[in-house]
User: What shape does this take?
Amino acid sequence: MRGLNGLLRSWSRGGCRLLSTLSDGVLPSNLVVPADLADSSTIVKPSLEGPDLSVIRKCNVAIPSHLKPGQAWLESLRRYEDERLGLVDLHPDVFTVMPRIDILHEVAIWQKNFKRISYAKTKTRAEMRGGGRKPWAQKGSGRARQGSIRSPLWRGGGIAFGPRGPTSYYYMLPMKVRVLGLKVALTTKLAQDDLHIIDTLDIPTDDPQYLVDLARYRHWGSTVLIVDVNETMPQNILQATANLKTINLIPALGLNVHSILKHETLVLTLETVEFLEEKLLWHDVRYTPLYPFKLPYSDFP
Amino acid sequence: PGLLLRGFQSWFRLRLQSRSIGQTENVPPQYPDIVESTEEYKFVERLIPPTRIPSPPKHDGPTPSGWRPPQEPPPALPYMVRRSRMHNVPVYTDITHGNRQMTVVRRIEGDIWALERDVKEHLTQISGKTPLTQVNEVTRTIRIKGYFDKDLKSWFMDKGF
Assistant: This one.
């Protein structure tokens, strides 16, 4: 229980590094560490003279008075060294919620299954060709009594309890559960140091190798998901990521739990952060819908 | 009806011919064009409901229902219980099997076990016996055996949550 409290405290502090949860800094002998684990304590970053600790972006939505905002560095894709341009405040009710892994599982499984239609279908004994006549008389032949040549016992007969027709696995999780799933995914990325905030998507060249080298220089991880609010993005980054499989661009409306968990690093622009905060926090203060939200309301676009 | 239709068609052809003759003489049309007016739409707009729940108005003194706003700033305790979206204290009753009565406290932040200790102590003072409680650290809720919603709601409001 003490370990759980410690983990939760370090989670709320905004970091879940491998060594800081242990007091003496020595790894236990039964811990199995994967060879490619990116542990931030072994990575040596060049120390700067005096990083600018001013908060560049404050939250537009009011933060409850008993909570402190989560923080992340503002970076830029323009140059390799633009790593710590300032601090960005992140709303605690979106970026530091309880780490509900069960909700992440629910939403990820829902995303995988709700689109599934299985087209498997087998014929029953009624649908098989033939099999209307009794093959031999009930008594006297010495063989087992049989009613039709297409019963499931027979070779070439119908299937007894097989898949019947296209089956749909469609179901919808409540809207608030899906919203909470997004919040928990963003929280997880921030807590595990995999969330980066950039100012714009401008890059100097349209060479895909630039982005790959930048991600490797900044130790971002093998897969990167870059999110912007608009669908129209600068041509350079579109060209650069067009043929890259590990670095992907999506608009903010396409953000989903499966993509966040699939990619190791999540990179958001400042406008995306504002958009996400506004949309995800609205669900905490809205009425239950009188009629679907796609119809007009007075304060909902 | 067939006769009427043929009669109408011949009348229409005559009108068309008279119209084509009339355009050269600039005869004003008998029927004006359709004009769309959007001034009455304000009566519709004020009926469309909003989506956001408004914050409650400021009351001087107690309200008739006994509702009190949360204390500003929140009390300096190791735990925090946030209000629901309708600004109520998040204490709910639950019943299963027709006779298993429970009280649920939701939306707890901070040290849950300290809150559980305080809740148990308070309910022991009230009822004389210690109620059974269940703490769910993942969902941040406390479930108490028995109906204690009124006591807990007033206790939380006295504390300032």
Q: What stands out?
A: Chain A has a mean pLDDT of 89. Chain A is about 30% helix and 10% strand.
